[in-house]
Amino acid sequence: MNKLVTGATEMSESDLPNEDQIEKQPIVERPDELSAAMELPVDSDTVLSEPTEPPAEETPKVKKVRVRKTKPVEPAPEKKKKEQPKEEIDPNYQPGSKKQWYVLKVQVNREESIRDALKRRIAIDDKEVFFGDILIPTEKVTEVRGGKKKIVKKKLYPGYLMIHVEVTEETWFLVRDTPGIGDFTGASGRPTPMQEHEIQAILRTEKEETEDSPKLKITYQVGDKIKIKEGTFENFEGEVYQIDMGSGRVTVMINIFGRSTPVELEYWQIETPS
User: Fold this and answer.
1) What CATH number belongs to 225-271?
2) From start to end of the chain, where are the E strands?
3) Domain ranges of the chain
4) Are 180 and 114 in contact (CB under 8 A)?
5) Taking Cα atoms as reference points, which of 140, 141, 134 lies closest to residue 113?
């Protein structure tokens, strides 16, 4: 008799159920036996179904970015500096031969002292050859103060000097460095020489000033309303009819006994009515 070995228990063929017994016995599933069977170790001969793999995660699509290749920036070529034309040297040039008349801006009411200071600096620096006259254009005027005539000098251009100079780098700095002097008149900071007719008019005035008698300071004009402040007709009011600049006498029309009468007066005997 053949014996079967199952696990550690030996069984004979007579102990096995026959086919009829197998068919008659109902199959009963026991949950506890199934769960225990699932925990039993698996033999090497047992074929297990392959586990299903989880679906692979879809990788996000990456947008392709086109990278433009840039050319290396080449440095800009250096611009060649334009060479300034060299001044031609005149073989016959003499220092001070290119003097011209210029206008200087100075502090008002300090024209005389500034002119004197500039002359001293020119002498100290030994630059007299480059400088000529330095003028303060004036005119002599006769004024009456307190009933007395007085001759005074009146500046024609307060705050300015006229200078005859050859402008070089040295003379330009010498003038500019003198206290009280502002600058030369001109455009863009460059000294501009005076026109010939302008300087001739000023020089003519200076010449007349030395030769002629002083001018009278008469500020009235024909047709002005005036008041007589001295003399026989004091406090009378009238109108300027005629002016004699040479003698300084003024003809005034005043009302005497209801009639317009001309009266000749000294210019200092009248005033503007208040």
Assistant:
1) 2.30.30.30
2) 3-6, 9-12, 100-106, 131-135, 138-145, 148-155, 160-165, 181-184, 215-216, 225-228, 237-244, 249-256, 259-266, 270-271
3) 100-216, 225-271
4) yes
5) 134
CA nearest 15: which of 28, 25, 6?
6
pLDDT tens digits for 109-163?
899 999 999 999 999 999 999 999 999 988 777 766 666 777 778 888 899 999 9
Whole-number Cα distances in Å, 163 to 14, 41, 64, 106, 258: 155, 126, 80, 12, 59
pLDDT tens-digit profile of 91-108?
A: 787 888 899 999 999 999
Residue at token pair 């995660």: 57
State both tokens at 228.
């007589």
- What homologous superfamily does CATH list for 100-216? NusG, N-terminal domain (3.30.70.940)
Ranges of H-type helices in the chain: 19-24, 31-39, 111-124, 169-176, 196-211
Q: Is 261 in a helix, a strand, or coil?
A: strand
Tokens of 269: 């005997």
The string of DSSP codes covering 188-213 is TT---PPPHHHHHHHHHHHHHHHHSP
